[in-house]
Specification:
5-stranded antiparallel beta sheet, 3-stranded antiparallel beta sheet, alpha+beta, about 240 residues, about 20% strand, about 55% helix
Length: about 240
């Protein structure tokens, strides 16, 4: 029995010794591997990888920067084009507005005078007719009137002012009746002087027996020409 115990202890001792030897061998091999490994090479490899990665990022940044500058340039170009188009559009709108004002296609407002002509009821005195109105209109035009209307009918270059059967007047094809209200936008002094000056037509109408009143108005509104402007021969 003692022999068996001694044999068992010897076996355990040998096993432990073998285990210790194996452990020592493994540790020795790991130490050798570590000593044989080139740490500098690893560091160099990492540095190279970092440089490569940095170069890649730098290339991507430069590419992105180039695209950004290109896009920025296009945006600036678009802004300039838009601004130019807006300015051109404004000029066109201004010119169109001026043309419409000249043609009488827009309502206008400004300083001017209002002439009110009331006919004398006496049958022995001739009634006012288109010729009387045309004399006043032409005098106002010569005095620089920028817009004229009769009884809210805008007078343009193609307006017709005619007497029908010696009984009533038509303006722009519309029948109008006395009292006749003529509005004119322009320099008030010039417009008034054109009608009241020596030998002015208003004096003649007053002498005949008609009543003519001229009033200066600082904000006089004249409505636009209501009909369509038509031409027969122009293309």
């Amino acid at each position: 029995m003692k022999a068996n115990i001694k044999k068992g202890k010897l076996t355990i001792t040998i096993t432990i010794a073998i285990a210790c030897f194996a452990l020592a061998f493994v540790m020795t091999m790991q130490f050798k591997i570590v000593n044989q490994t080139d740490i500098t090479a690893i560091e160099n490899m990492r540095e190279t990888e970092l440089r490569t990665e940095l170069a890649n990022w730098r290339a991507k940044y430069e590419e992105t920067e180039a695209k950004y500058q290109e896009t920025k340039g296009k945006i600036e170009e678009y802004k300039k084009t838009k601004q130019s188009n807006e300015e051109t559009g404004k000029l066109v709108d201004m010119e169109l507005e001026q043309v419409n004002m000249t043609l009488g296609k827009t309502d206008v407002e400004g300083e001017g005078i209002e002439v009110i002509l009331r006919e004398n009821r006496n049958e022995e005195i001739s009634k006012m007719n288109a010729d009387d109105l045309l004399v006043i209109i032409n005098a106002l035009k010569l005095a620089g009137a920028e817009a004229i209307s009769i009884n809210e009918e805008r007078i343009i270059n193609m307006s017709d002012v005619v007497t029908i059967n010696e009984t009533f007047v038509k303006v722009n094809g519309q029948r109008i009746l006395a009292p006749y209200v003529i509005k004119a936008i322009g320099n008030q002094t010039y417009l008034e002087s054109a009608l009241l000056g020596n030998g002015g037509y208003v004096d003649e109408l007053n002498k005949i027996g008609h009543d003519v009143l001229i009033e200066k108005i600082n904000k006089l509104k004249i409505t636009k020409y209501k009909d369509e402007i038509k031409t027969k021969y122009m293309e």
